[in-house]
Amino acid sequence: MLVLKKNKENCTLPKAQLLKWVGNKQKIATQIIKYFPRKFNTFYEPFLGSGAIMATLCPKKGIGSDIYPPLMAIWDMLKQDPQCLIDWYEERIDRINDQDKVTVYNDIRDSFNKNNNGADFIFLLRACYGGVIRFRKADGFMSTPCGVHTPISAETFRKRVYEWSERMANVEFRQCDYKTIFDQAHEGDLIYCDPPYPISQNILYGAHDFKLTELFDCIDQAKNRGVFVALSIDGSKKANRYLENLEFPDDLFQRDISLSLGNSMLKRFQMEGLKIRSEKAIKDRLLLTYRL
């Protein structure tokens, strides 16, 4: 007999984001989680990104993964040595006290582009323009300029690290492709997917090679094994026109829920600080393979 564990009582948002990440779901994390099954076993998040859903859920057993090494280096350090993660950030942010911010940023970005690493990446995530990390398709060069804002202080970052470390205490982090995670999930487990959007995130890492149809195949197979799957996907009109041309497996999703994300970081980046009209607000869809 399959015994499922209660997993989502008293979910609360972290006080603030640890990582800036385009498309992150921190604003609506509690809304998303309310549509999760009340009981499930292991919680998987194979497109971990900012970790907003994982940190809000604080699962009894979680597996957080992503394919991008510098990102997972940050999450691994949060788990293994939070103080080292703080030191990474403090070492770089302190350089702004002695040098021009843009000069420091460009030097760290050059270092990152020569040797992709989590230590540089954590600073760039907090300091880049619009919070949007983007990469040139031709050579993978991280090209986002320095932001106009002042990055958070080392002390503020330290407080966030220790809060998030506690929230992620029961999470194992893995650098791997999402297909590996789907293969490992068993009956009664829950997978939450927030993949790169096929339309709006084509400038982001991994989005060039990601195919939504392949993810649908994985979801179909997992559903047939008794795995619960929840999928966040771009709900904008442009994306909906794209999705109309895709073939969803018959009866793959049992529910289709619309959620509002407000204005996206990516849209602000593309508009270069211009005022964004209300109709540009991003709608997100939450698709479920199950009914509550």
UniProtKB/TrEMBL annotation:
<dbReference type="InterPro" id="IPR029063">
    <property type="entry name" value="SAM-dependent_MTases_sf"/>
</dbReference>
<dbReference type="GO" id="GO:0009007">
    <property type="term" value="F:site-specific DNA-methyltransferase (adenine-specific) activity"/>
</dbReference>
<keyword id="KW-0808">Transferase</keyword>
<dbReference type="InterPro" id="IPR012327">
    <property type="entry name" value="MeTrfase_D12"/>
</dbReference>
<dbReference type="Pfam" id="PF02086">
    <property type="entry name" value="MethyltransfD12"/>
</dbReference>
<comment type="similarity">
    <text>Belongs to the N(4)/N(6)-methyltransferase family.</text>
</comment>
<keyword id="KW-0489">Methyltransferase</keyword>
<dbReference type="GO" id="GO:0032259">
    <property type="term" value="P:methylation"/>
</dbReference>
<protein>
    <recommendedName>
        <fullName>Site-specific DNA-methyltransferase (adenine-specific)</fullName>
        <ecNumber>2.1.1.72</ecNumber>
    </recommendedName>
</protein>
<dbReference type="InterPro" id="IPR002052">
    <property type="entry name" value="DNA_methylase_N6_adenine_CS"/>
</dbReference>
<keyword id="KW-0949">S-adenosyl-L-methionine</keyword>
<dbReference type="InterPro" id="IPR023095">
    <property type="entry name" value="Ade_MeTrfase_dom_2"/>
</dbReference>
